[in-house]
Each structure stands twice: as C-alpha cells, then as structure tokens.
Amino acid sequence: MNKKALVTGAKGGIGSSITKGLVEAGYRVIATYFPNGEAKAKEWFEENNYSENQVRLFPLDVTDTSFCKEALATLLQEEGNIDVLVNNAGITRDSTFKRMSAAQWNEVINTNLNSLFNVTHPLFDSMCQHGNARIINITSVNGLKGQFGQANYSAAKAGMIGFTKALAAEGARSGVTVNAIAPGYTGTPMVEAIKSEVLDSIKAEIPMKRLAMPQEIAGAVTFLASDAAAYITGETLSVNGGLYMN
Ligand code: CAA
C-alpha cells in the first residue's frame, strides 16, 4: 500500500512541485486547497494527469480551527493514517510596517502560522501512534533573515521554525521527525508579484544570481520525507542559492 502524504496549498507555486515530487516517489498525496477553489483544483488535477489513487483533492481552510479538526478526523477514518505532513500553505501581504493594516498582519499570521496548529494538531497523535512519520514545514529565508516590507510574514515564518524545534522534541520518541525547509526566492506567482525593480535588486543579492526552481524545493521535501532522513529532526534546511547562510 502507498505511503500517504498530506500537502497543504498543494496546487500553489511550490506546493504543486512538492505534490509532483511525492507522487513520483510513490506517495498517495492528499492535496488540500481552499474550499472555494474547487474548479481550479480539478483543472490542476487534470492538467497533471493524476489518477484518483495518486492524488486526492481535499478542501481545507487552514485558518479555520474547527473545520480542520472535523475534516481531518474524517480523513483519518477514511485513509487510515498520514505518513508525511507538509505544511506548505502560505500567503504574503507585503507592506512597510508603518502602513501595514491589522488585516494584513492577521491574514498572514492566520494562514502561515496558526495553520500549523489547525492542521498538525488533529494529525499528530495518530502520527505518533503509527511512528516513522514526517512533518515538514515550509518556512522562508525571510523567517531567518527578516525582510523589509514583511514584518508579518517574517514573524510567521520565524514562528514556524520555533514550532518545528518544539514539536521535534515531542515527536522524537515516537519516531515522528519534524523539520523545516527555508526556500529562498523561488520562481512562483508569489515572487513574480514583486515590483520588477525590487525583484531585480533582490536577484542581484543572490550569490547564484537566479531564483530557485520550485522542483529544487520539492527535492528537499522528498529527501526529508525519505527513510534516508530518519535521524534528522528539528532542523531547518535552507534552499536559497546562498542568499542567507546561518
Ligand atoms: N532595505 C532598505 N530600504 C528599502 C528596502 C530594503 N530592502 N526596500 C525598499 N527600501 C526603501 C526604498 O528604497 C524606498 O526608499 P525611498 O522612499 O527613500 O525611495 C522606501 O524603502 C520605500 O520602498 P518602496 O518604494 O518599495 O515602498 P512601497 O510602499 O512601494 O513598497 C513593499 C513596499 C511592497 C514592501 C516593497 O518594498 C516590496 O515589495 N518589497 C519586497 C518585499 C519582499 O521581498 N517580498 C517577498 C515576497 S515573496 C516571498 O515572500 C516568498 C519567500 O518566502 C521568499
């Protein structure tokens, strides 16, 4: 029977490559999408020629605690257990802090950080009981170094790293590893939305002088999910072309 992975934000810029990488590695992927995006999710599923056995589309509002609790309890009954959880869903609401609204702050904290509780909590006990499971949190170079215009996003992404270390300590005795991946600037619609002159100045600072390709982030996920990574936990793996070395 296939191992099962749940990927949040699965049809997004990086999520789509993560899903593809895990399917290619033999996983059945539970691909979550924001509930009002069903038509687009089906389109994505068909464009990628996935079979029902490879990918199950699963509506999930990662900001809604009780929705996640109920939906993920039902999922566990239907699927048995989840071997790999990839907390990937994330948004930006960039603004200088002076101009940042409470809504911009809260939307980013809810989607990027509170989602970790909402999605991981309903699955964690079952993962501990089955053992040999993986939780992989997609944070960001900007959670490590801080970024002008991203006080909300940098706070959430740094919070993900603290969560990763704390949960790694709790999961270790049950064989549940918890790690983070910190992508640098990656060629996705999120990064393409940055003003071109700002993006050019960011690119100029990257020692490799290019953006990451989404599949380069997905490769790190597949590695951390694999048996080869069984003894790595609490770690943050940077995939950033040398932009920040910590
Ligand atoms: N450091 C210091 N000063 C900076 C700066 C920086 N990095 N960036 C801009 N400034 C300065 C500008 O030079 C400008 O100064 P002057 O007023 O003296 O000209 C001032 O700050 C205002 O800058 P903007 O003109 O850019 O202000 P804005 O209000 O039009 O835009 C912003 C603000 C939306 C935050 C814009 O600066 C921006 O998009 N910055 C990039 C944010 C970013 O990197 N986002 C990443 C998104 S992708 C992602 O998040 C994925 C991931 O994980 C990596």
Mean pLDDT: 97
How many discrete domains? 1
| Classification by helices and strands | alpha/beta
Order of strands, widest sheet: 3-2-1-4-5-6-7
- The ordered string of helix (H) and strand (E) elements is EHEHEHEHEHHEHHHE
Keywords: Oxidoreductase
Protein name: Acetoacetyl-CoA reductase
Enzyme class: oxidoreductase
Family: Belongs to the short-chain dehydrogenases/reductases (SDR) family.
Q: What does the secondary structure layout of this molecule look like, with pairings?
A:
Blueprint: E1 4-7, H1 13-24, E2 28-33, H2 38-47, E3 55-59, H3 65-79, E4 84-87, H4 102-130, E5 133-138, H5 141-145, H6 151-171, E6 176-183, H7 189-192, H8 196-205, H9 214-225, E7 236-239
Parallel strand pairs: 1-2, 1-4, 2-3, 4-5, 5-6, 6-7
Helix pairs in contact: 1-9, 3-4, 4-6
Bound molecules: acetoacetyl-coenzyme A.
Question: What does this protein structure show overall?
Answer:
This protein has helices spanning 13-24, 38-47, 65-79, 102-130, 141-145, 151-171, 189-192, 196-205, 214-225; strands at residues 4-7, 28-33, 55-59, 84-87, 133-138, 176-183, 236-239. The chain has a single domain, classed as 3-Layer(aba) Sandwich (Rossmann fold). It starts with a strand and ends in a 7-residue tail after the last strand. 44% of the residues are buried. It is α/β, with parallel strands linked by helices. The chain has a seven-stranded parallel sheet, with helices on both faces. The radius of gyration is 17 Å and the shape is globular. Helix 1 crosses helix 9 (214-225), helix 3 (65-79) runs parallel beside helix 4 (102-130) and helix 4 (102-130) runs parallel beside helix 6 (151-171). Helix content is 48%, strand content 15%. It contains nine helices and seven strands, in the order E-H-E-H-E-H-E-H-E-H-H-E-H-H-H-E. The structure holds acetoacetyl-coenzyme A. Acetoacetyl-coenzyme A binds at residues 92, 94-96, 140-142, 147-150, 153, 183, 185, 190-191, 194-195, 198. Keywords: Oxidoreductase. Its EC number is 1.1.1.36. Belongs to the short-chain dehydrogenases/reductases (SDR) family. This is Acetoacetyl-CoA reductase. InterPro entries: Acetoacetyl-CoA_reductase, NAD(P)-bd_dom_sf, Sc_DH/Rdtase_CS, SDR, SDR_fam.
